[in-house]
């Protein structure tokens, strides 16, 4: 899967049509959200920069002669005894340079994402998906039968979150098949097909548990929401 995957107007229309078709047989309401990313992870960059500064101080403590000799060569100073104040000043300078250098490197988002632990990315995606669900689907239907399909490109992760009426009847692990079907297509570069595959499988599950009533009406938008 690649963050550079994009959706054309025709792709968006296909996803919306798939949602409409899936909802034709169920009282459930499917919401699809496509996010470029779920977090900027600047706190992770800050943590790595702080660690780099700390490690620099540890290295100076373990190998003081190496660092102080290097400082003398760079500045052209004669070998000398180091006063405590000057020694601490050099240590602070080295730590600050390491911190700043690491922070600047991690301003490049792909590197920042690569250095973000998988569990952290997973938690951030879930939190963003949950927030989107609460805004866009939770308890917004008459029978509380809304369900969110959320895809976050930067993290290469997806979530399916169901409203309480669905969650009471359908175990959460059932949605794993829909997620797998979606990710297979997306890894092949077919993002619209992946979303459609997930919508179709979710629609089949909903139709089995929540068949469409004669007076059912469309309560949530069928279009793909991009954030």
TrEMBL record:
Domain TPM, first and last residues per copy: 143-204
Keyword Phosphoprotein recorded: no
PANTHER family, sorted: BLL7265 PROTEIN, UPF0603 PROTEIN YGCG
Sequence intervals crossing the membrane: 45-67, 87-108
UniProt-recorded name of the protein: TPM domain-containing protein
UniProt keywords, alphabetically: Membrane, Transmembrane, Transmembrane helix
Gene3D superfamilies linked to this entry: 3.10.310.50
Source species, domain of life: Bacteria
């Amino acid at each position: 899967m690649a963050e550079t995957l994009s959706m054309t107007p025709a792709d968006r229309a296909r996803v919306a049509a798939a949602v409409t078709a899936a909802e034709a047989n169920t009282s459930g309401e499917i919401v699809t959200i496509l996010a470029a990313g779920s977090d900027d992870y600047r706190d992770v960059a800050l943590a790595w920069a702080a660690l780099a500064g700390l490690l620099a101080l540890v290295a100076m403590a373990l190998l003081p002669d190496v660092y102080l000799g290097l400082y003398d060569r760079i500045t052209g100073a004669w070998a000398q005894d180091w006063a405590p104040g000057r020694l601490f000043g050099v240590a602070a300078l080295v730590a600050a340079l390491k911190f700043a250098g690491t922070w600047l490197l991690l301003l490049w988002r792909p590197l920042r994402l690569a250095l973000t632990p998988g569990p952290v990315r997973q938690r951030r995606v879930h939190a963003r998906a949950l927030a989107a669900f609460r805004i866009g689907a939770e308890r917004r239907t008459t029978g509380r039968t809304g369900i969110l399909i959320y895809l976050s490109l930067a993290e290469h992760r997806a979530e399916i979150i169901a409203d309480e009426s669905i969650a009471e009847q359908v175990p959460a692990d059932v949605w794993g098949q829909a997620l797998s079907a979606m990710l297979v297509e997306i890894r092949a570069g077919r993002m619209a097909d992946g979303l459609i595959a997930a919508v179709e499988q979710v629609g089949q599950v909903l139709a089995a548990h929540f068949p469409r009533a004669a007076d059912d009406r469309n309560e949530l938008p069928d279009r793909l929401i991009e954030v």
